[in-house]
Amino acid sequence: MLRSHNQQDVELDFFTSFLDHAINGEEAYIAIVKPIILEAARLARDETKIADVDRTGLNIKLRLYDWGSTLLMPIYADNLTQNLPMVLTIINNSRAAVTA
User: Fold this and answer.
1) Could you tell me if 91 and 19 are in contact, meaning their C-beta atoms sit under 8 angstroms apart?
2) For residues 70 and 91, what is the distance between their CA atoms, to the nearest angstrom?
3) Is the model's pTM score more than 0.85?
4) Residue 93, SS3?
5) What distance in Å separates the CA atoms of residue 98 and residue 72, rounded to the nearest whole number?
6) With contact defined as beta carbons under 8 Å apart, do 65 and 40 qualify?
7) Which residue, among 82, 86, 51, has the nearest Cα to 70 in the 3D structure?
8) CA 7 to CA 71: how far, in whole Å?
């Protein structure tokens, strides 16, 4: 089944590409994905409310929260780097479920 591309899918494609670079240790890309993932993790832990979330990357934050909130709970700034592959897995598994 083909999946239609909309603006949200394009944003997710870019984020996934940046996440791949971050996993490979590219600091510039880690700086881009870090605030998005950490805010999604704060949502998962109920430390912030959706109304208070920074609007930058909002679509990605909400998708991560929706797709993997329990998996995001243990992610903090000090362990973010080792959890990047898990975040990519959340995205890939959720996308595969949608297209299946």
Assistant:
1) yes
2) 14
3) yes
4) helix
5) 20
6) yes
7) 86
8) 26
CB 18 within 8 A of CB 32: yes
Torsion-angle region of 25 (φ positive above 0: left; ψ -120 to 50: alpha; else: beta): left
- Please list, in sequence order, all residues whose beta carbon lies within 8 angstroms of the beta carbon of residue 3, skipping any fewer than 6 positions away: 9, 98, 99
Look at the block and give the residue holding tokens 């959720």.
94
pLDDT for 28-59, tens place per residue?
A: 999 999 999 999 999 999 999 999 999 999 99
Write down how long the chain is.
100
Instruction: Report CA-CA distances (Å) from 23 to 19, 45, 56, 92.
Output: 6, 24, 21, 14
Q: Both tokens of residue 96? A: 């595969």
Tokens of 69: 């909130």
